[in-house]
Amino acid sequence: MQLSRKVVQNIHLSGGSLLGVSRGGPSVSSIVDNMQVNGINMLFVLGGNGTHAGANAIHNECRKRRLKVSVVGVPKTIDNDILFMDKTFGFDTAVEEAQRAINAASIEANSAYHGIGIVKLMGRSSGFIAMQASLASGQIDICLIPEVEFQLHGPHGVLSHLNYLIKTKGSAVLCVAEGAGQEFLKKTNCKDASGNVQLGDIGVYITQQTKDYFKEMDMPADVKYIDPTYMIRACRANASDGILCTVLGQNAVHGAFGGYSGITVGICNTHFVYLPIPEVISYPRIVDPNSRMWHRCLTSTGQPDFL
């Protein structure tokens, strides 16, 4: 696909990708073969940790063949889980869009007798979206993320706290990241085309457990479950992400013209920098349970330790 100014001038007004997305793909060798055939000497790779791992493999193959090719990554993931980076493109938009789901859950919960709204947000190994969305909304009573263990049952469990909330304020809203509480679910060991382990649905599980708990307590509870999943990323970028994406793109091109390869661009400690790809993909960035931001979230929700 040949990209001209006319083709790309309005793509920022839409969500998604003009170029398309993929899970898995051809071998590294065949990718580099095609680059040689088509005379490509600059490759920009957009995505998260898995995509950057692929970019690093392409870079290494180009070095092995002694090709003069610049391979530059651009961090694009709503999970905000790439090391050393303050923020990745798509995160702010996802948090903003998640407000709609949380607000709907809050309205449903507050409108019903003993209403409970449960919202599941994306975040396989990092709970940044759930944490920031909960903090931004001011409507969440319980936020559950992969980095912090919790129990559902027992005197200090999530269900016991839901019971307390129903008795004291009449309703409750719970937000859970998709990767949280996977130890409660049956493991399938199935993987997607990118090699990611397929997760169990913690949102459906908590919803059913909540219904069963209040039924056993002989207490009426109106439980509503909202799963926006891909809706929070399939939308137009907001102003903050629009600026970030523009500057990342500009810096990626400058890096490639400067002869750099095997790097990615990012914002680190408020500065736009180049980082070696092997460093940023060594492991996912996760929420620090001792961080101020997580403690701010706990203060906002008022939730106890669920252990």
Structure notes:
- The protein is of the alpha/beta class.
- The chain folds into two domains: 23-88 and 237-280, Rossmann fold; 93-235 and 288-301, 3-Layer(aba) Sandwich (Rossmann fold).
- Helices cover 39% and strands 15% of the residues.
- The protein contains ten helices and eight strands.
- It has helices spanning 5-8, 28-37, 49-64, 91-111, 128-137, 158-169, 202-216, 239-257, 277-280, 292-301, and strands spanning 42-47, 70-75, 115-121, 142-144, 171-177, 222-226, 263-268, 271-276.
- The strands form two sheets. A four-stranded mixed beta sheet has the order 1-2-7-8, sandwiched between helices. A four-stranded parallel beta sheet has the order 4-5-3-6, with helices on both faces.
- Helix 4 packs across helix 5 and helix 5 packs across helix 10 (292-301).
- The longest helix is centred in the first third of the chain and has 21 residues, at 91-111.
- The mean pLDDT is 94.
Which descriptors would you attach to this protein?
alpha/beta, Rossmann fold, 4-stranded mixed beta sheet
Secondary-structure map:
Elements: H1 5-8, H2 28-37, E1 42-47, H3 49-64, E2 70-75, H4 91-111, E3 115-121, H5 128-137, E4 142-144, H6 158-169, E5 171-177, H7 202-216, E6 222-226, H8 239-257, E7 263-268, E8 271-276, H9 277-280, H10 292-301
Parallel strand pairs: 1-2, 2-7, 3-5, 3-6, 4-5
Antiparallel strand pairs: 7-8
Helix pairs in contact: 2-3, 4-5, 5-10
